[in-house]
Amino acid sequence: MSENKTDTGMVIKIGHLYPTLMSVAADRGNLFSIERRCKWRGIATEVEPIFVKQTPDFTKYDLILFHGGADREMEIASRDIQHKASSLREAAESNTVFLSVCAGYQLLGHYYKPFNGPELKGVGLFDMYTEGGSTRFMTHMALECKFEETGTKILVGYENHSGRTYLGPKAQPLGKVLAGWGNNGKDGVEGARYKNAFGTYTHGPVLPKNPWLTDLLIQRSLEHRYGKVKLLPLDDSTENAAHAAALKLAMEFKGTMSAIEATSWKR
Amino acid sequence: MQTDNSNNDSTTPSGLRKARLAFAISAGKLAGASGRLFHIGGGTSLPGMIARRIDPNVLKSVVGGSKAKKIVITGSNGKTTTARMTAAIADAAGRSVSQNRTGSNLLQGITSVAVNFSDFFGRMESDVLLFEIDEATIPLAVPEIQPDVVVITNIFRDQLDRYGELYAVARALDEMLESLPETATILLNGNDPQVANFGRNAKAKRIFFGLETKDIGTPVPEQSADIIRCIHCNSDFTYEVAYLSHLGLYRCPECGYTLPDLDLAVTGATLAENGEGPSKITLRTPEGEMNLEIPLPGIHNIYNAVAAIGAAMAAGFPLDSVQTALSNIRTAFGRMEKIQAGDKTIYLSFVKNPTSFNLMLRLIAQHPGKKHLLLAMSHTVVDGQDFAWLWDVEFEDLVSDILDAVCSGNKTEELAMRLKYAEVSTDKISLIEDREAALDAALKQVEPGGTLYIMSGYTPTQELRRIMQKRGWVKHFWEE
C-alpha cells in the first residue's frame, strides 16, 4: 500500500487556512488524506500554512483547506478573513479547489449569525447565510452526491453544529441528505458547491473514509494546474470498510435527534 | 396502612423520609451485592441508580449528615489517579476514606458511595468523602455534595459530541465554583490558562498548583493543544515551557495574562528515561519544600501527585507521610497497568482523548525495542460517538517502532484506517472486532518474554480487564 509509485513530476500546491486556529475536530485528517493519496501515486504536495494577518495571493494555490473551530476561534477568523476575502473569491472564480468544513464552511458564506452574539461577516464565496440555532445537530450522517467524474456516490461523516445554513440561488448543495440533519434540518440538503469550491458540515474527518471525494479534489486540483489527468487507482479496502461501518451507523440513527439519544440501550 | 394509630415513627413526615432513605439504601446495597455475586458488575453504579429511584435525595441526605471532609476532583484527565493518591495521603495521615474509586464518576456512581459506605440509616463513619466526578456531572453533583475542597486538574478537549464545546464545559465549571461558600477551597491547575482563570469571582479561597521548572517540557505546545490563545484577548500565547498539551508557562504578549503565583510549585523535576518511572521532584509548598519520588511515570503523574498533595493540604491533613503514601501507589486500573499474562507482559492503558493517547504513545516509545500493539475503541454512550480525535493522535511518531497492531471494538475499521494513513503497512494491521479474539490474536504475535501494549477506550478497557480477570491475570477492579 505505502510503496511509492514512480514520481509523476506533478505537484499540488495547498493553502491550509488557519491550521492552528481552526482545527477543532481533528480535521487535519483531511490534509493527511490528500497528502498520502498523492504520495502513494507519486504526486508531490506543497503545503503552506496561512495564519492570521497573512494575505497571500490565493490564486497561486490549487487547493485551499479551511476547517472548523468553536465560536471564539470563529470570531477571530471572521475578522481576519475580511483582509483575505477578495483574493479568496478570485481564486474560487479561477477554479481553485476549496474544501471547507463546519465553521470554515460557514465563513465562506455571506454571514454567520450566532444564537447569542453579533453577526460574523463571511467571505461571500458561497451564496448562503447561516443562523445559530438553540440546539445542536449531532449525529452520524450520509449524503447522496453526484459528480460528472464519479457518478452517484455516498458521502458519510458526523455532523456537530448549531448553525442552520440556507443556500441562495448561486450555490448548489453538496448532496441530498439520506440520514442526518444537513444544512438546516428542513430542506433535505447538505453542504454547498460553487465551481470547484466545496463546503460541508461533515466531520469524521470527512476525507479519509470518503476516498472518492479525496480523489475528486486531487484530480480537480491537478487539472487546475495541468489540464486533464487520470488518477492511478489505489487499494481502498481499508477506507471502504470504514465507509461501510460509518454508513451503517448513519442509517441506524436515521431520523433521530442525535446519535446519543438514539443509542440502542436507551431505546 | 398509615391509618394504624400506633406510635409508628414512619407515619410522621420526617420518619417517612427516614424510612424512604433506609429503604433506598437497603435496596441499593442489595443490588450491589447481587451484582457482585452474579459477576455482572462491580456494583459501582447500580446501587446508586437503584437508591436514587427510591429516594432522589439519598446522596444529599447521607453526605449532608456526615461530618467528613468532602473532596471533589474533576477535570478532563487525571481524576482517577489524583483521587487514588489523595486517598493514600489521607490514609497515611490516619483518616478513613470513602470514595468512588473505580472511575464510576457519573451521578449514579457517586451516589453508590453514599449507599455502599453508609449504614442502613444513611450514617457514615468515614473522615473523608472523596469523589472523582465527570466534568459534565459536576453541576448536578456539587449542590448535593456541598464539598469542602474542589480540585480541577485540567480541561482538555474531550468527547465533543458528549459535552458540546470545550468552552461550554468551562462555563459550567466556573458557575459551579462561584456557587461555593467562602469556607470552601478551590484547587486549580495554574499551568492551564483556562483553569487558572476559574473562580475569579468565587467566594471560596483559590489556591494554585503546577510546575515552574525548565528541567522538563518542550518550547512549544503539541499540535493537539486546545487553549493556545489568550482567554481574555485571543492573542497567541508565548510559552516559556510547555509541559503537556496547553499546560505550561504561558504569557499573553498583548494583555499580559499569565499564570498566577503557584502555592504548590514543582521547582525541579527528573523523569525516568525508561518510560516506567519513578520521577523525582522538588515541590515548594506553604508548609515547606519537599523532595519526592513519584513511582508512576510521566509528567501527567507529577501533576496528579501535586494535585493530590494540594487537596490533602486544603483538607487540613498533615503532609509528613506524603512520600510513604505515594511510594505505595500502584497504577490505577488501566493506566499503563503492568499485567503478567503467562510468560508475556501486558501494559494496559486507558486512552480517551488526544492528550492521554499521546502521553501513552510517548511513554511506550521510551520502552526499548519494537512494539506489538492492541488498539480497541467503542462507540457507546460513555465512549462517545465521534472519533475524529483519533486524527489528532500522533501515531506517526511511533510508526517505525510498530511490529504489528490488532484493531478491535466497533471502531475497528476507523482505527485501521488511521494507522494506514500514519503509513503503518496494512499487512501489519489486523481487524478483529471481538475483544477476546483480538486479545488472543495480539498475544499470539508476542514472542515468549515479550510485551503487548494495549491502548483502549473506556468500555473496551473494562471488557478486556474482565477477560484478564477471568484468566486470573488481574483482580476484580472493585477489589482494588
UniProtKB/TrEMBL annotation, chain A:
GO molecular function, one term: transferase activity
Domain of life of the source: Bacteria
BP GO annotations: cell wall organization; cobalamin biosynthetic process; peptidoglycan biosynthetic process; regulation of cell shape
UniProt KW keywords: Cell shape, Cell wall biogenesis/degradation, Glutamine amidotransferase, Hydrolase, Ligase, Peptidoglycan synthesis, Transferase
Catalytic activity: beta-D-GlcNAc-(1->4)-Mur2Ac(oyl-L-Ala-gamma-D-Glu-L-Lys-D-Ala-D-Ala)-di-trans,octa-cis-undecaprenyl diphosphate + L-glutamine + ATP + H2O = beta-D-GlcNAc-(1->4)-Mur2Ac(oyl-L-Ala-D-isoglutaminyl-L-Lys-D-Ala-D-Ala)-di-trans,octa-cis-undecaprenyl diphosphate + L-glutamate + ADP + phosphate + H(+); L-glutamine + H2O = L-glutamate + NH4(+)
Pathway: Cell wall biogenesis; peptidoglycan biosynthesis
Entry keyword annotation includes Transferase: yes
Annotated positions binding substrate: 136
Keyword Hydrolase belongs to the record: yes
InterPro entries the UniProt entry points to: Class_I_gatase-like (IPR029062), CobQ_GATase1 (IPR033949), GATase_3 (IPR011698), Lipid_II_synth_GatD (IPR043702)
Active-site annotation: 102, 203
Pfam family, one: GATase_3
The EC number(s) this enzyme carries: 6.3.5.13, 3.5.1.2
CobB/CobQ-like glutamine amidotransferase domain residues: 14-210
The family this protein is said to belong to: Belongs to the CobB/CobQ family. GatD subfamily.
Subunit architecture: Forms a heterodimer with MurT.
Listed PANTHER family: DETHIOBIOTIN SYNTHETASE, LIPID II ISOGLUTAMINYL SYNTHASE (GLUTAMINE-HYDROLYZING) SUBUNIT GATD
UniProt function note: The lipid II isoglutaminyl synthase complex catalyzes the formation of alpha-D-isoglutamine in the cell wall lipid II stem peptide. The GatD subunit catalyzes the hydrolysis of glutamine to glutamate and ammonia. The resulting ammonia molecule is channeled to the active site of MurT.
Protein name: Lipid II isoglutaminyl synthase (glutamine-hydrolyzing) subunit GatD
Species of the source: Dictyobacter vulcani
UniProtKB/TrEMBL annotation, chain B:
All copies of domain Mur ligase central, residue ranges: 73-215
EC number: 6.3.5.13
Annotated positions binding Zn(2+): 230, 233, 252, 255
Gene3D superfamilies the record matches: Mur-like, catalytic domain
Pathway: Cell wall biogenesis; peptidoglycan biosynthesis
Domain Lipid II isoglutaminyl synthase (glutamine-hydrolyzing) subunit MurT C-terminal: 351-459
UniProt-annotated catalytic positions: 386
Family matches, as InterPro entries: Lipid_II_synth_MurT, Mur-like_cat_sf, Mur_ligase_C_dom_sf, Mur_ligase_cen, MurT_C
Record bears the keyword Transferase: no
GO biological process, one term: cell wall organization
Domain of life: Bacteria
Catalytic activity line of the entry: beta-D-GlcNAc-(1->4)-Mur2Ac(oyl-L-Ala-gamma-D-Glu-L-Lys-D-Ala-D-Ala)-di-trans,octa-cis-undecaprenyl diphosphate + L-glutamine + ATP + H2O = beta-D-GlcNAc-(1->4)-Mur2Ac(oyl-L-Ala-D-isoglutaminyl-L-Lys-D-Ala-D-Ala)-di-trans,octa-cis-undecaprenyl diphosphate + L-glutamate + ADP + phosphate + H(+); beta-D-GlcNAc-(1->4)-Mur2Ac(oyl-L-Ala-gamma-D-O-P-Glu-L-Lys-D-Ala-D-Ala)-di-trans,octa-cis-undecaprenyl diphosphate + NH4(+) = beta-D-GlcNAc-(1->4)-Mur2Ac(oyl-L-Ala-D-isoglutaminyl-L-Lys-D-Ala-D-Ala)-di-trans,octa-cis-undecaprenyl diphosphate + phosphate + H(+); beta-D-GlcNAc-(1->4)-Mur2Ac(oyl-L-Ala-gamma-D-Glu-L-Lys-D-Ala-D-Ala)-di-trans,octa-cis-undecaprenyl diphosphate + ATP = beta-D-GlcNAc-(1->4)-Mur2Ac(oyl-L-Ala-gamma-D-O-P-Glu-L-Lys-D-Ala-D-Ala)-di-trans,octa-cis-undecaprenyl diphosphate + ADP
Any one GO molecular-function label of the UniProt entry: ATP binding
Protein keywords: ATP-binding, Cell shape, Cell wall biogenesis/degradation, Ligase, Metal-binding, Nucleotide-binding, Peptidoglycan synthesis, Zinc
Family named by the database record: Belongs to the MurCDEF family. MurT subfamily.
Listed HAMAP family: Lipid_II_synth_MurT
Summary of the function given for this chain in its UniProt record: The lipid II isoglutaminyl synthase complex catalyzes the formation of alpha-D-isoglutamine in the cell wall lipid II stem peptide. The MurT subunit catalyzes the ATP-dependent amidation of D-glutamate residue of lipid II, converting it to an isoglutamine residue.
Assembly, per entry: Forms a heterodimer with GatD.
This protein's name: Lipid II isoglutaminyl synthase (glutamine-hydrolyzing) subunit MurT
